[in-house]
Specification:
By secondary structure, the protein is α+β, with helices and mostly antiparallel strands. The chain contains twelve helices and 21 strands. The protein folds into four domains: 102 residues, no CATH class; 161 residues, Beta-lactamase; 91 residues, Sandwich (Peptidoglycan synthesis regulatory factor (PBP3), Domain 2), CATH 2.60.410.10; 40 residues. The two termini are 53 Å apart. The relative contact order is 0.11.
C-alpha cells in the first residue's frame, strides 16, 4: 500500500510541477528625432531600456554590410588571403550613388583589408568584391546566404536584396531583428575587433599606388564630432539611404555593463539650429546613451527574503499554507534616486498556483512575480516555497477518497448505475415479459431443488 501511495504521489507531483523563467523589461519615455528606437542591456537580465516602434518595418540601408561582414568572417579560413577585384564585381556600381574607396578592376587586396574598407569606411565596392568572391562568382548567390543567415536567427521580417543595402524599397528589417542580428555578430571576436576600429591606414596595392586612409563613418566614435560623439560607444555601424535618412547600430559600456542600441529612420535636420543639418540617428544614439548613463542605474529591487504571498497546501497535518518568496535577489535598471515605495513586487495570478499538494520542498517553484516601478513592469522573478511541508498519509487518503466520490465522472457512473438498476427493477416486476421471465426462473429453481433432493436420496440409499 505504501509503495502504491508513493508511486501515485510521484506522478501527481510530476504532472503539477511547472518551471517558469525570469524575464525583465523596462521602458522609459524620452523624445527622439528618429521614428524607431530599440535599446536594451546586454547583461543577463536583457532589460529593455527604450522601445519605440521596434517591430515596425524600415529600410536597412548600409546596415546590410553587417551581415555581409559576418558571412565572410565565418567562411574565410585565412583573412590574409588576397582577392583580385573582378570586373563583374566593380562594374555594377558604375553610375550608382554610393560610398567607395576606389577599388580598381584587377586590384589585389586581402580579405582583412576589404573588411576594413567595408566596415570602417562603408565602402560598397569592397562589399561587392567580397560578395562576388564568397558567392562563388555570383553576388545574388551571396545575397541568398545573407537571407538564409538571418532566417536561421529567427528573423521573420528581415530581407536583403544586395550586399551593401543600396536597393531602397527592396530590403527591410525591424529594430528588434537588427538588434538580434548585431548581437549574434558580437559573439564573433574578429567581427567585434573590426566593428570597433575607427581608423586604418591601408597600404598601396598593385593598382593603387598611394596610401588610403580609412576613417569611420560612425561619428559616435569620433571625438571630433561633438554632435554625435559618445565616449562609451565601443563599436557599431551607421548608414544613410538615398533619401538622406539615417540608421545606426552600436554597443556601449558603462560601469561594467554593456548595452545595445538600434536607431532607424532618423531624418537629416538642423536639430540644434546651428545652421547645419545633422544625422539624427547618430544624434539620438549619443543622447540616449548620455541619458541612460546619467539617470538609469542598476539596483536591487527585490530581495529573496521578501514574502510575496501564500499558497494553500493540501495533504499536510502541520501547515495549511506555504509562503512564497523570490527565488533570488533581483536587480533591474531604474531611475536613480527613486523612492523605495515606488518599486514593489506582485505575484502574477495566472502564473502562480492557488493551491499545491504536500510534500513541498523549500525552493520549489510555485509561481512568478512582476516587479513594478510606477505601475510599469521592470522585471520578473520565479516565486518559490520558503519552507518544507511534509505530507500526511491520512490526509492524503481522505482527500483522495473525497476527490474520487466528488469527481463528476464518478457521479455520472453512479447515476447511470442507479438508473439502469431502476429500469431493470421496473422491467422485472411490472412488465409482462418480466413476469414470465420471473416465473420461468422460479420453475427452473424448483425443478433444480426437486432434482437435487432425488440425488441426495439416492446417495443416502447407497
Amino acid at each position: 500500500m505504501k509503495k502504491l501511495f508513493v508511486f501515485l504521489l510521484t506522478i501527481c507531483i510530476f504532472l503539477t510541477n511547472g518551471l517558469l523563467f525570469c524575464e525583465a523589461a523596462f521602458t522609459k519615455a524620452k523624445d527622439t528625432h528618429s521614428e524607431i528606437v530599440y535599446m536594451y542591456s546586454l547583461d543577463a537580465e536583457r532589460t529593455v531600456i527604450y522601445d519605440k516602434n521596434s517591430d515596425v518595418l524600415a529600410n536597412c540601408a548600409s546596415l546590410a554590410k553587417i551581415v555581409t561582414a559576418r558571412i565572410v568572417i565565418d567562411e574565410c579560413e585565412d583573412y590574409t588571403m588576397p582577392i583580385t577585384a573582378a570586373s563583374d564585381a566593380i562594374r555594377p556600381l558604375d553610375n550608382v550613388s554610393c560610398t567607395r574607396v576606389g577599388i580598381l578592376v584587377g586590384e589585389v587586396i586581402s580579405v582583412q583589408e576589404l573588411l576594413y574598407c567595408l566596415m570602417i569606411a562603408n565602402a560598397a565596392d569592397a562589399g561587392n568584391v567580397l560578395a562576388y568572391h564568397f558567392g562563388g562568382e555570383s553576388i545574388s548567390a551571396f545575397v541568398d546566404k545573407m537571407n538564409d543567415y538571418v532566417k536561421s536567427l529567427g528573423c521573420e521580417n528581415t530581407v536583403f536584396a544586395d550586399p551593401n543595402g543600396l536597393k531602397d524599397g527592396q530590403q527591410f528589417t525591424t529594430a528588434k531583428e537588427m538588434a538580434m542580428i548585431y548581437e549574434d555578430c558580437l559573439n564573433n571576436d574578429y567581427f567585434v575587433q573590426i566593428a570597433s576600429m575607427d581608423y586604418y591606414k591601408m597600404p598601396a596595392t598593385n593598382k593603387y599606388y598611394e596610401t588610403r586612409y580609412l576613417h569611420t563613418t560612425n561619428l559616435c566614435m569620433d571625438p571630433n564630432y561633438s554632435d554625435y560623439y559618445c565616449s562609451e560607444v565601443i563599436n557599431g555601424k551607421v548608414a544613410t539611404d538615398s533619401n538622406d535618412v539615417g540608421y545606426a547600430v552600436s554597443t556601449a559600456t558603462n560601469d561594467g555593463y554593456s548595452y545595445l542600441c538600434v536607431v532607424l529612420n532618423g531624418p537629416q535636420k538642423d536639430y540644434d539650429e546651428d545652421g547645419k543639418t545633422e544625422n539624427t540617428a547618430m544624434v539620438d544614439t549619443a543622447k540616449l546613451y548620455d541619458w541612460l548613463f546619467d539617470t538609469v542605474k542598476l539596483r536591487v529591487v527585490a530581495k529573496n527574503s521578501t514574502v510575496v504571498g501564500e499558497v494553500k497546501v493540501n495533504h499536510s497535518a502541520d501547515f495549511d499554507y506555504v509562503s512564497l518568496v523570490p527565488m533570488m535577489d533581483v536587480s533591474a535598471l531604474v531611475p536613480e534616486g527613486i523612492d523605495t515605495e515606488s518599486v514593489y513586487i506582485k505575484a502574477i495570478p495566472e502564473l502562480t498556483k492557488t493551491e499545491v499538494d504536500a510534500p513541498i520542498h523549500k525552493g520549489d517553484v510555485l509561481g512568478t512575480a512582476a516587479i513594478l516601478y510606477a505601475d510599469e513592469e521592470i522585471a520578473r522573478v520565479d516565486l518559490v516555497a520558503s519552507f518544507d511541508v511534509e505530507v500526511s498519509y491520512s490526509q492524503f487518503l481522505i482527500q483522495s477518497v473525497r476527490d474520487i466520490i466528488t469527481h463528476p465522472v464518478f457521479i455520472i457512473i453512479v447515476i447511470v448505475f442507479l438508473v439502469a438498476l431502476a429500469v431493470f427493477g421496473c422491467y422485472f416486476f411490472f412488465v409482462p415479459g418480466g413476469k414470465k421471465f420471473r416465473k420461468n426462473n422460479v420453475r427452473i429453481i424448483k425443478g433444480y431443488e426437486v432434482m437435487n433432493k432425488k440425488s441426495k436420496s439416492k446417495r443416502g440409499d447407497k
